[in-house]
DNA sequence: CTCTAATTTCAGAAATTACTGAAATTTATG
DNA sequence: CATAAATTTCAGTAATTTCTGAAATTAGAG
């Protein structure tokens, strides 16, 4: 591996974290490299930068493409494929969320739904179903929130983040204001 | 493995998903089993239920304890250790979020901070730093939101989830109400 | 259509991770 | 403190995942 020290540290870190994030070392390293590079790289650039085999690069790029984390670019008068990551980190976040949901949450939700359709054959199964139902409810609440929020523009999303827990206070304030308004016009409503 | 069919399907699914979630099969299976069981289980119960070795159970339980996902219980006049998961799925969610943040996000944030302290030695490094800075900003916004929201009670958290994107509309409404109020008392403020 | 560059596929090797059984250690009890 | 039950450790093995090099395929230029 022959990279500027800063880039190398970043790439190595992403490689190490890869396993915790459920991707492998090479995929993590390639993503980090593409993310931090100032221009698109072709497969052979990656082979050289990371000292790994050409076929490994090919398979890892395919994996990154399956995750929609990488963009294919073409350079005039050059038949090779060049790759970058999207510029906008918020867009990257959205993609990551979408793909992880698809791979890590949706299959579980569908298993839960299926198992909750069954008629329990014993007290033990009846209890298990009750627990699965709790899990299902939680996951559905979370995904419903996600489906709602994912359409927001970056600016609105940032606003929502900055609000954080203040939202609940805001909600209280709104309730007070509304009920105040109501009291003025409809004084007899509870 | 000798379990009621429903429980078995659930356990096997968690085992399979394990790799995507960054835990191994056995750990996933044991968690699922404990989660869905109506009473605490001891190590030998798990050995029998999942047909795996006693030492594997021991190591996997240790792993689950490191994640704070499992509770150690004692039954009177029985020296064996019994295990369950917390009852409250919201509490489980909180624990999961906290542990994943600790393992998957914090180390990256600390690497980013360190690399952004360095003086870039080339134009390529300067560009890389700019990209790392974008990533850092995003992660810090997200973790700031998380730190804010994690203290909320379950009920408030559920409220926040139910609001979803409506928060931004609510915020607009509040702005209008406030500026309306201001106009009445301070008509010359822009 | 032919030639060549670029990319992909895939069988096997290498590396890593998970699992087991035996031995060691810890813990509770009389 | 001796004993037995429960649990943990760990070295070796099994299973899985990752990676490579060679061969096959695809795509572009002439």
What is the H/E string of chain A? Answer: HHEHHEEHHHH
Shape-level CATH architecture of the domain at 5-84 in chain A: Orthogonal Bundle
Kindly estimate the percentage of residues of chain A that lie in beta strands according to DSSP.
5-15%
Helical content class of chain A? over 70%
Oligomer: homodimer
Can you describe what's shown?
2 copies of one chain form a homodimer. With 190 residues, chain A is mainly alpha-helical. Chain A has a domain at 5-84: Arc Repressor Mutant, subunit A (Orthogonal Bundle). Chain A is 72% helix and 5% strand. The first copy, chain A, is built from 8 helices and 3 strands; from the N terminus they run ααβααββαααα. Chain A has helices spanning 5-21, 25-36, 43-50, 54-66, 89-117, 123-149, 154-163, 166-185, and strands at 41-42, 71-74, 81-84. Chain A has a 3-stranded antiparallel β-sheet with strand order 1-3-2. In chain A, a hairpin with a 6-residue loop joins strand 2 (71-74) and strand 3 (81-84). In chain A, helix 1 (5-21) packs across helix 2 (25-36), helix 3 packs across helix 4 and helix 5 (89-117) runs antiparallel to helix 6 (123-149). Chain A is extended. Chain A starts with a helix and ends in a 5-residue tail after the last helix. The mean pLDDT of chain A is 91. At the A-B interface, helix 1, helix 5, helix 6, helix 7 and helix 8 of A face helix 1, helix 5, helix 6, helix 7 and helix 8 of B. Chain A binds a DNA duplex (30 and 30 nucleotides) through residues 19, 24-26, 42-44, 52-56, 58-59, 62, 79-81.
């Amino acid at each position: 591996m022959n990279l500027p020290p800063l880039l190398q540290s970043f790439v190595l870190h992403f490689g190490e974290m890869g396993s915790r994030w459920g991707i492998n070392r090479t995929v993590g390293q390639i993503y980090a490299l593409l993310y931090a590079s100032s221009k698109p790289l072709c497969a052979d650039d990656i082979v050289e930068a990371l000292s790994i085999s050409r076929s490994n690069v090919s398979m890892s790029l395919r994996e990154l493409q399956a995750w929609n984390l990488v963009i294919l670019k073409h350079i005039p008068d050059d038949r090779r494929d060049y790759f970058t990551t999207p510029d906008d980190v918020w867009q990257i976040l959205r993609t990551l969320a979408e793909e992880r949901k698809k791979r890590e949450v949706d299959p579980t939700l569908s298993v839960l739904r299926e198992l909750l359709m069954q008629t329990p054959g014993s007290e033990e199964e009846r209890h298990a179903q009750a627990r699965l139902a709790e899990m299902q409810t939680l996951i559905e609440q979370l995904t419903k929130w996600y489906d709602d929020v994912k359409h927001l523009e970056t600016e609105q999303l940032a606003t929502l983040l900055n609000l954080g827990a203040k939202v609940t206070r805001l909600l209280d304030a709104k309730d007070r204001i509304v009920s105040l308004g109501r009291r003025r016009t409809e004084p007899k409503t509870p």
